[in-house]
Amino acid sequence: MCRWIAYVGEPVFIEEFVCVPCQSLIAQSRHSREAHSETNADGFGIGWYGERPIPGVFRDIRPAWSDENLKSLASQIRAPLFFAHVRASTGTATTRANCHPFTHGRHLFMHNGQIGGFDKLRRRFDASIPDHLYDSRGGTTDSEAIFLMMLGDNLATEPKGACDRLIDTVARVQAAAGITDAFRFTAAWSDGTAIYAARYSSDPAPPSLYTRTLPGGRGTLVVSEPLDGLRDGWQAVPPQSFVTVTQEKVTIEPLGHTALAAVA
């Protein structure tokens, strides 16, 4: 499983959370504490909102801990909203096009989890991507397919509704194909003004997710696992939840899809 962090607030250098803490994202790429796979070495990526209309993105296939370009960029790029992701592949190739975050226009998206049985369902999900978005599908992951499906289902104006409908769609497609493997979906996306995130699984094992508002209210983090190795100050997001983070507040609410699993 992958690890990721998202930040919104006062502009900060990306290295403050990607490189510096004892359990920074780079540290998690070597030794994750809360993922099924301890090592996340199948590529990495960062995406940030600066002064241009669309976000900047840098992705590569090297392990995050061994790429000097990542450390250099993270020490120079200062942003009010950014994503960072380290990848542990669930079966698709280790290529730059398969590294997160994915981008389209103003939107960034990254994911930790998988659609169970995706290798058997790929054509069905690809067929759910609208034609005007399919040309931008550069890789082969289920994560990118999810992103483009949500974009095609009013993600820009209905971030929670698109998420709810995606979960229902995946459940219906899996059921029709007789697939019983879990759909695990801990993801984040943004349009440059807010961070939206979900923590969902169709079984009792959704990938972990936490939020933390920094001292003085200068910003908020949404992360796969705490960056300091501690629990103090970190709020665990309950399973089957949708998160909205703005400069002003964090809102956590239940997902409203009809395929909601009975997971405590």
CATH class of the domain at 3-114 and 187-254: Alpha Beta
**Proportion of strand residues:** 25-35%
Q: What is the arithmetic mean of pLDDT?
A: 94
Class based on secondary structure composition and strand pairing: alpha+beta
- Reported by name, the CATH topology of the domain at 3-114 and 187-254 is Glutamine Phosphoribosylpyrophosphate, subunit 1, domain 1
Shape: globular
Q: Give the low-pLDDT segments.
A: 260-264
**What level of helicity do the residues show?**
10-25%
**Strand order of the main beta sheet, please?**
3-2-4-1-10-9-11
Gyration radius from CA atoms, angstroms: 17 Å
CATH superfamily of the domain at 3-114 and 187-254: Aminohydrolase, N-terminal nucleophile (Ntn) domain
Topology, number of strands = 13
Number of helical segments? 7
Please provide a written account of the structure.
The protein has a domain at 3-114 and 187-254: Aminohydrolase, N-terminal nucleophile (Ntn) domain (Glutamine Phosphoribosylpyrophosphate, subunit 1, domain 1, 4-Layer Sandwich), CATH 3.60.20.10. The radius of gyration is 17 Å and the shape is globular. The chain is built from seven helices and 13 strands. Residues 260-264 have low confidence and may be disordered. α4 (118-126) runs parallel beside α6 and α6 (142-151) packs across α7. The chain has helices at residues 15-18, 25-30, 68-76, 118-126, 131-134, 142-151, 159-176, and strands at residues 3-13, 44-48, 56-60, 78-86, 102-104, 107-115, 183-190, 195-201, 210-213, 219-223, 235-236, 241-245, 250-254. It has 264 residues and is of the alpha+beta class.
